[in-house]
Write a structure and sequence with these properties.
- The protein has helices at 4-8, 16-21, 52-63, 80-91, 110-145, 149-177, 185-196, 200-225, 229-257, 262-282, 286-291, 296-305, 307-314, 320-326, 336-343, 355-358, 365-368, 374-377.
- The model has no long low-confidence stretch (mean pLDDT 90).
- The chain contains 18 helices and no strands.
- Helices cover 63% and strands 0% of the residues.
- It has one domain (80-377): Ferritin, core subunit, four-helix bundle (Ferritin).
- The radius of gyration is 21 Å and the shape is globular.
- It has 378 residues and is an all-alpha fold.
- The termini are far apart.
- The structure holds fe (ii) ion (FE2) (2 copies).
Length: 378
């Protein structure tokens, strides 16, 4: 039987020292090579619409295209310090929620917590940008590896979507926040694992279900929180694409996973659990604390153990858990993934709406205007 150590390289999923030991050691390198180990599949079966739901998504995606340069109000003046200060006035510092006695953070006042908010925003947007490049690469791989023509067509639109997402996050970081962070080591390990896997459905599972499912929830929180008009519109547009992407994963994999053996299903469950832990661990924002001069060996264990923060973090799984359930991954075989999701306290979202059902609620106006296209309306 595969152990937690086999899956993520440590026996205890909550071993904070082991989590902190994973760091990005080549932050100055510009390129990062990964073997993608997959066969490129041609199909000579060009029957468009053999999978009607994928065809519909493809038509919606064509209507939902937008231009990151011209559709967003880049002339908006953004003052990141003012944004960070406003956030502080709404929510105060983490010290209002967590007791930092003995960590060195007792001396932090308003100035430091506002600075932390500023760095945290840049870190979060940077990880979004790196994750978006992961999505760009993975979707290009799906175009090559998926056997169905409807999925190749749809994935091709997603490649364009993801290029646009990388572009707008990079532009926001460079022109509005004026600082950025390298890729978090947990996130990079996850992206590497997804790209390295030779099986085409694992690209979908890792990227469309896990990474993009979490991104959709995370973008939603930031969208609710921010009053900054450029960022709000940027996130609104990105979310309209992401909802289609997650729905693409759910619709494609449901068909495949219905026919898997118990052993094959278990491999997918383990992969989903690994991805869940890696994403959870990156949200410790280790690099932000380091840049702020905090002693991470003292601060992060206190944060990691704080119940209120964990509760909030679990909300990031509101899309992932119902989508895994819809794919039959929660209860497939002996229900292995259900037990793991119980252990990390995210199982309570299992009956929330899945993304294949809610995709239209994210649509932007031009997609909705396509309702008179019979392929979209059905
Ligand atoms: Fe994206
Ligand atoms: Fe996406």
């Amino acid at each position: 039987m595969t152990s937690t150590e086999d899956i993520i390289g440590r026996a205890d999923a909550n071993d904070i020292e082991a989590i902190l030991a994973v760091t990005n050691t080549d932050v100055d390198s510009v390129l990062h090579a990964v073997k993608d180990n997959a066969d490129c599949l041609y199909t000579w079966d060009y029957s468009k619409g053999a999978r009607p739901q994928l065809e519909k998504l493809y038509e919606k995606a064509k209507l939902g295209q937008w231009n990151g340069e011209t559709d967003l109000p880049w002339d908006t003046v953004v003052d990141p310090l003012q944004e960070a200060t406003q956030l502080y006035s709404q929510a105060a510092g983490l010290d209002q929620m967590i007791d930092f006695t003995g960590t060195g953070l007792e001396s932090w006042g308003e100035k430091e917590w506002i600075e932390f908010n500023l760095e945290s925003q840049a870190w979060t947007m940077s990880q979004f940008m790196h994750g978006e490049q992961g999505a760009l690469v993975c979707t290009a791989k799906i175009v090559e590896t998926v056997p169905w023509i409807d999925a190749k067509y749809y994935a091709a639109t997603q490649v364009m979507d993801e290029a646009r997402h990388v572009e707008v996050f990079a532009k926001y970081l460079d022109t509005k926040l004026d600082r950025r962070y390298p890729v978090n080591a947990h996130l990079r390990m996850l992206l590497d694992d997804i790209v390295e896997d030779s099986r085409w459905d694992m690209t979908y599972l890792g990227m469309q279900i896990m990474v993009e499912g979490l991104a959709l929830a995370a973008f939603g929180f930031m969208y609710q929180q921010t009053e900054e008009p450029l960022l709000k519109k940027l996130l609104r547009y990105v979310m309209s694409d992401e909802a289609r992407h997650v729905a693409f994963g759910v619709l494609s994999l449901r068909e495949v996973y219905a026919d898997l053996t118990q052993a094959e299903l278990r491999e997918r469950q383990e992969f989903a659990f690994e991805a869940a832990l890696r994403m959870r661990d990156r949200f410790l924002q280790q690099e932000v604390w380091e840049r702020m001069g905090a002693d991470v060996s003292k601060v992060l264990p206190v944060i990691f153990d704080n119940e209120d923060r964990r509760e909030f973090q679990h909300l990031l799984f509101t899309k992932i858990v119902p989508n895994c359930k819809k794919l039959g991954l929660l209860d497939g075989g002996d229900g292995w993934l259900r037990k793991r999701f119980e252990e990390i306290n995210v199982i309570q979202y299992e009956d929330w709406i899945d993304t294949a059902e809610e995709v239209d609620s994210f649509a932007i106006q031009r997609e909705l205007e396509g309702e008179d296209n019979p392929l979209v309306a059905r």
